[in-house]
Amino acid sequence: MDSQLQVGFIGAGNMAFGIAKGILSGNVPPTNVKVSAPSLRNLGRFQELNISTTHSNTEVVCSCDVLFVAVKPHLVPTVLSEISHHVTDRHTIVSVAAGVTLATLEELLPEGSRVIRLMPNLPCVVLQGALLFTRGTHAKQEHGALLCSLLQRCGLVEEGPEAWIDIHTGLSGSGVAFVYLFAEALAEGAVKMGMPGALAHRIASQTVLGAGQLLLESDKHPAQLRSEVCTPGGTTIYGLHALEQGGVRASTMAAVESATERARELGRKTAGSGSMK
Ligand SMILES: NC(=O)C1=CN([C@@H]2O[C@H](COP(=O)(O)OP(=O)(O)OC[C@H]3O[C@@H](n4cnc5c(N)ncnc54)[C@H](O)[C@@H]3O)[C@@H](O)[C@H]2O)C=CC1
Ligand SMILES: O=C(O)[C@@H]1CCC=N1
Question: Where, by residue number, does NADPH bind (predicted)?
Answer without folding.
Answer: 57
